[in-house]
Amino acid sequence: MLEQNYAGFDTSVSDPGILTITFNRPESLNASTVPMKRDLVELLTQAQMDDSIRVVVFTGAGRAFWAGDDLKGYEQPGDDASMPPIFGGHHNAMGTYNGLRAISQAVNVAVRNLDKLTIAAINGFAIQTGFSLALACDFRLAARSARMGSATLRFGLLPDEGGQWLLVQTLGVPATMDFLMRKRIVDSDEAFDLGLVHEVVDDDQLPGAAMALARELATGPQAAMRMLKRSIYNAAELSFGQALDEIAAKTAITDHLPDAREGGRAFLEKRAPTFNVWLDDDRDS
Questions:
Q1: In whole angstroms, what is the distance from residue 198 CA to residue 139 CA?
Q2: Side-by-side strand order, sheet with 117-122
Q3: How many alpha carbons fall within 13 Å on the CB side of residue 197?
Q4: Which domains does the chain have, with CATH numbers?
């Protein structure tokens, strides 16, 4: 179901439950169109509901990860200034607002709403919307040749897909102010120094490194990891007291799941735990 034709990207699923999404418009540096974003939101919604999917990896074909928006892609054949695009556009203020909320911002919302872990394998240019999607992911690996940034002010535009919030979460307010106001696009080494990416690898090692991380994450106790992911993001916006109550409520569930019992038995028996039997049982039924 998840491996079918999509606008602007390809998908593949490999064991144990790793969904790879490859942006595939290399002629435009994988710049996005409205149909591409629409299909991406639908796919991520399906992935969230599919227990067989444990980890989602994003990467790009060619020289780019995702190099912003393809403005030509927002036009409909035969359009003129008096005919707004089918999916909303910039023909007036409400068109801009609705297009952002329903399409562009919805992509990063869908990524953050996933309780499955996500990895951005940044193989080249990650600019504007592509940079924001990478920031929305839980892990970011960069090829040595990667370059990333927002730089919307170069065109008098704003990081309207939520890039300013994602950067504040990653860098803090002072560094975000510097990064966005000075229209910075950084290479992989500087991105690592700033904390924008978790690891930098040689270009030819990126696919293998991303899959190794994906397999490591996919073999962990999925129910607990999904709840912990949500709890970590919640903690960034809660008081300490609220965060204590939130994690206690989740622990009241995870402590009584099969993975917790298996983890305890494995520790006592001095062996590696075998997690996620419940997922395999669901797949076989």
A1: 7
A2: 9-14, 18-23, 55-60, 117-122, 139-143, 199-201
A3: 28
A4: 9-218 (3.90.226.10), 222-284 (1.10.12.10)
Order the strands of the 147-149 sheet from edge to edge. Answer: 64-67, 125-127, 147-149, 185-187
Is there a contact between 183 and 238 (Cβ–Cβ < 8 Å)?
Answer: no
- Joined together, the tokens standing for residue 101 give 């909320």
pLDDT band at 4 (very low <50, low <70, confident <90, very high): confident
Task: Report the C-alpha gap between 97 and 74 in whole angstroms.
Answer: 15
Half-sphere exposure for 14 (CA within 13 Å, toward CB): 9
**Partners of 55 in beta bridges:** 18, 117
Using the structure block, give the residue that is written with the tokens 């569930």. Answer: 253
Longest alpha-carbon distance in the chain: 72
Query: What digits encode the pLDDT tens for the residues 178-228?
Result: 999 999 999 999 999 999 999 999 999 999 999 999 999 999 999 999 999
Structure tokens belonging to residue 47 = 């992935």
